[in-house]
Amino acid sequence: MTRAHYSLIVALLCLSGCQGWHQVARPSAGGSLEGNPDIVRVTRTVGCGATPTRECVASHGTVTLYNPRVKGDSLIGYYDSNQRERVAMHVRDVVSVESRKIDAGRTAGVALGTGALIGLAAVVAAMALIASVFGQ
Fold first, then answer.
1. Which residues have CB under 8 Å from 91's CB, separation 6+?
2. Buried (b) or exposed (e) across 97-113, using 16+ Cβ within 10 A?
3. CA distance 87 to 93
4. Tens digits of per-residue pLDDT, 86-102?
5. Which residue, 59, 60, 76, is CA-closest to 68?
6. Domain locations in the chain as residue ranges
7. What is the Cα–Cα distance from 38 to 67, expressed in whole angstroms?
8. pTM higher than 0.85 for the full model?
């Protein structure tokens, strides 16, 4: 492999760590999801009342939806990326919605960590080369 291949691999590794879940506005009936994301993580409640408690929210948990859309008063999406199992929930039962977005902190951390590993590998290789030359 050439240096260009290694550079491409390092760049792809850095970009893969760049995303994280970020809060977006809750959908309203007849509205849309902020930014039209492809994947969202929805925290929902059913029968928790107007002001849901943490215990009620925890008992209903979160759902990851693929290809989410708001149709009328429902949030509709799929449980899997192959879009085989459809799910719909009333927007009033949605407590929060998160989508995947680029996270600058993670990006910087991955870039610095990858650079440190490459530097460490170069130092170890140089030490091995020096040891082999002077060890004889």
1. 26, 27, 28, 29, 70, 73, 74, 75
2. bbbeeebeeebeebbee
3. 13
4. 888 888 888 888 888 76
5. 76
6. 20-101
7. 5
8. no
